[in-house]
Amino acid sequence: MVGPEQAAVADEKDEKQEESAEAKPSNELKVVIILNDSRVMLGVQSPDCDPVYTTLKGNLAAALKRVPKLVEEAKQKWNESPRNPNANLPTPVPRPAPARASTAPKKETAQPSFF
After folding, report:
1. pLDDT by residue (tens digit) across 87-111?
2. Where is the composition biased (Basic and acidic residues) (predicted)?
3. pTM to 2 decimals?
């Protein structure tokens, strides 16, 4: 049978394990390479972090040489700030209501239209 003191110690251990699991950065990493003629776009992304992109000229070999440096740059950026700051955009000005068409009846013309 577990006493109240042992239960409290077990709860503290569980909380510490959860905190350490949350504090650990994910080791999952996604690298994207897009080749278009002689242009290359490289991207690196990790869960719960904004992606980091760069472009360069070259071929697949040049892109593969650049990947380790981009990964290090991304990890450094994510350590400082994993997410980009939210944009503080001004609230949009409400549009004025469109003018309504007159509901007055049309005046009849003096001459009837035959066509």
Report:
1. 788 888 888 888 776 666 666 667 7
2. 10-26
3. 0.52
